[in-house]
Write a structure and sequence with these properties.
four-stranded antiparallel sheet, alpha+beta, elongated, 733 residues
Length: 733
Amino acid sequence: MTASRRMAPSPANWPLRVGLFLVALTLLAAFLGPLLALHDPLERISALRVGTAWIGPPYPLGTPGFLLGSDAAGRDLFSRLLWAIRPTLMMVAMVASVRLGLGLLIGLMAGWLRGGVGRLMDGLITGASAAPVLVVALAAIAFVGIQRGLVAFIVGLCLTGWAETARQVESRTRSVRAEPYIDAARSLGASESRLLFYHTLRHILPLLGMLLAVEVSSVLMATAGLGFLGYYIGGGVWVTVDDFVARNAAGLPELGQMLATSLEQILHPWPMLVVGGVVVTMILGFSLTGEGLRRRLQGETGGRVAASDRFFDWASSRLADRRRPAARNRDRRWIWGILGACLLVVAGIFGWRALGPKESPADAPAIFTVAPPGGHPWASARHDAFGTLTLDASGPLTATLLWEFRDESGFSGPPVVAADGTIFVTTTGGVLHGLSADGQVQWSQSLAGAGVGAPALGPDGTIYVADHERGLSAYAPDGSLGWRVELAGRRPTSGPIVSAQNVVYITQGDRVQAVDADGQPLWQSPPIEGYTEEAPRLNGDGTLILLMTDAFTVADGTPMTLLPPVDSAQIFMSPRYITGADGQGYRVVGTTAVQWQITAEGVQSVARVAWQLEGYDVFLPTDTGVTADGLFWLFYGSPYTDTRMVWVERNSSVRKNLAMPLRDSRLIGVDGADNAYICATIATVCYGLSYRQDAPLWSVRLPSGGTGIMGALTPDRLYLTTENGFMFAIGQK
C-alpha cells in the first residue's frame, strides 16, 4: 500500500444521527412545550369571527390564532399537542424502564442458569413472546380497571412486553457463557458472581441503550394502538358538536386520548392526521436511534468506541474488580454516589410537585354551603335559594308511615320545614297551614287567593307566600301577617326564594321580581323568551339570579350573558342554568352540562359533561343536579317512561343506573350521602335509593293515591303533599 492511498472512510451512521435528532426534538417539546403553547389546552372557543362571518369548531388549519386548527370542542390543537407530549413520554419512559429491567433480569437468569430454574425462565420467555402484547394489555387493563389510570397501563403493557428484551439478553448471555475465557476463568477459581458481573455483564450493558430505545418505540406503538381502540389514561368529557350529536373529547391532553377522540371525527380527519403524525415521528425517532445503536455495537459503521460503551465497560470492570480492594471500594462509592444523587434529584422533583406551593388561602374560592340561612332543614320548594334539591345531611335510612293530614282543596306545592320542626304548606283553597312535627295544626291563615307553589323561609323565620291575586305576603312564625304587596305585571307563577340577605325573588311568568324584607319592590327583570313556572335560583356566590337560560344581577336585575345562546333546535331540550350543591354553575341542555365560572377575564366554560343511557337517548331527564362532591344526578320520571335514577361521574362515566317499573314519579330530594328519595304518583309508593347498592334502602306504600306528588326532605323524614289534598309524613319513628 502506497502513502498516496487513503483508508476508505467508515460509512456514516445516518439512522443514529436522524434518530437522535428526532429524539432531541421530542425531549425539547416535552420540557418546553407548555411554555410554547399559545392557548390553555382546556380553553374552549365556541365561536370565532373570521372576516365578516362567524364559524364554529372544529376550526380548520390556518385559522387565525389556531396554527393547526382545533378539535370539535374548539380547543387549539397545536397547544394540546405541546401539552400532550410530556405526560405521554413520562408514561412511556416508566413502562419502558420496567420492561427493560424485567427483560434484563429474566434474560440473565435464563441465559446463565442451568437446570430447572434456567428452563423455567426460558419457558417464561417463550410463553410471553407467544402472547400478543396488545391483547394481553387490553385484558390486563380491563381486569385492573382503566379508572386506575397509570397503574393499569403499567401492568398491562409490562405483563408480557419484556419478552423481546429478555430473549436478546438471554441469547447474548448464552453466547458469552460458551466462550473459552469463561471456562478458563472458572478453572482459575473465579466465582460465579465474578464470571457473571465481570465477564458477562460487561457484554450485556452496552446493549441497554439500544434495547431502551427499542422498548420506548414499542411502548409508543402499543399506546397508539390502545388509543385507537379507545383505551387511554384518564377519562374524557362529552361535547356537543351538532344537534343531537355528542362526542367524547379528551380532557387533559395526552396523545392516547387525542388519538382516541380524533378518530370519531371522520368528516374532519385533520386532527387525526396531526396527532398520528406526531406519534409516528416519535416512534420513528426512537426506532432509528435503536437501529443506529445496533449498527454501532456490531461495528457496521466503524469509528471509535462510543463513550457509553466505554462507561459501561469501566463500570462493570470496577464493580467486579477484586485485585484492588481499596480502589474497588472507592470506585463503587463513586458509582453508587452518582446513582444516589440522581435518585435524590428525581425524588426532589416529585416531592416539590407534591408538597410545593399550592393555591394560597386568599386565592381559594369562598366556602359554599347549601344549608339555608336560619338553620331550616327545607326552606323552599327545592330546599334552598340555589335550587339544589340537596339536603346538607343524611336522610332517613329506614321509613314507615307516621301520620296523614287532609285538606280537600288540595295543596299548591311542597311543604317547607322550619328550624324548630314546624311545617308550613299552602293550599289551592287559599290557606296557609302551620303544622307541628306530629301533624297537628298549630294555626291556619287565609290568603288573598289560591297559594302558588311552596312557601319560603327567611333567615329570621319569616314565611313568604305567593298567591294567585298577584300578591306576596310575609307571615311571622306564629301566623300573624306582617305585610302583603301586590306585584306589578303578571301574577306569580312560582313560589318565592329568599337569599341570605333576606331579599325575596319570585317568578312572574317571563320575568323575576325582587322584593326586600319590608315588602318594598326592588326591581323587575326584563322578560325572558318563553314562560316558566319554575322558581328562580341564585348562583353559587349569590351575585346572580338564574331563570331558565337567562341571568340577572341581584343588585338591579341587569341581564348578563354567561354562555353563547343555545341553538334554536335545542330549545325543546329544556336548557337551563342550575347551581350544583358544590357551589358551581352549570348550563344543562338535554344530555349535556357545561360548567361555567366568572373570572377576571369574564365568563368562561371550564368543563363539559354528557351522558348517554342505552334506551333513554330520546328522553330528557325530568330533573338534573350536582351533589356536593361534584357527582351529577339525573332523574327520569315522566308518565311515559319507567323511573330511573342515574349518578354520573365528571368524566361522563355512569357510576350507577337504577331503574324501577314506575311511571309519573317525582324526585323529592338528594341527601348529603348522595342518596335519592323518590315517590310515584300512580303506584303511591316511595323509595330511598343509593348508588352503593342495587336494592332500595327502603320502600313505603302510601295509603291514599294522589296526583302531582311533591315533598320536602329532612334528616329523619319525608313530608309529602298531593294536588288532591293528601299530606303524609314518612320516616324514622
